Amino acid sequence: MARSQMRRGRSRSTRGLAIRSADNGTWELPRGVLELDEAPEDGVKREAWEETGVHIEVDQLTGVYKNTTRGIVALVFRCKPSGGTERTSEESTAVDWLMPEEVAERMSEVFAVRLLDALDANAPHVRSHDGKRLNQV
């Protein structure tokens, strides 16, 4: 599974791209499952465009997150927008660029930490969670 988030260029404040999921109404990162023959970076680009209308350039891996309940591992990358126009899709009912201080207000803990880690210069991070809460080390 690949997850993506983006930050605006240096001339603007750092923000993370988020969607409101059409499935459950929660704010999350654009996400999806890789195709069998797809590189993680290509999957990140595809999912970001499909869910938000934003084209991106992948910068670096910022985190690896394991859901210990479901056995799913998510990769999160820092990316830069490179074109496109923000729009909703079948998978998103809203698209927004969130400031770091807005992330915890809109997202659950397990999604908020991923976006905040992506905005952190000390990446990459490796974390695990049970689907609702981070596991303490």
Question: What's this, in brief?
Answer:
This protein has 137 residues and is an alpha/beta fold. It has a single domain (2-129), classed as Nucleoside Triphosphate Pyrophosphohydrolase (Alpha-Beta Complex).
Please describe what this structure looks like.
By secondary structure, the chain is α/β, with parallel strands linked by helices. It has a single domain (2-129), classed as Alpha-Beta Complex (Nucleoside Triphosphate Pyrophosphohydrolase), CATH 3.90.79. 23% of the residues lie in helices and 39% in strands. It contains three helices and eight strands; from the N terminus they run E-E-E-E-H-E-E-E-H-H-E. The chain has helices at residues 40-52, 100-106, 109-119, and strands spanning 2-6, 16-21, 27-28, 31-32, 54-67, 72-84, 92-98, 125-129. Helix 2 runs antiparallel to helix 3. The radius of gyration is 14 Å and the shape is globular. It comes from Actinacidiphila glaucinigra. Residues 1-21 are annotated as: Disordered.
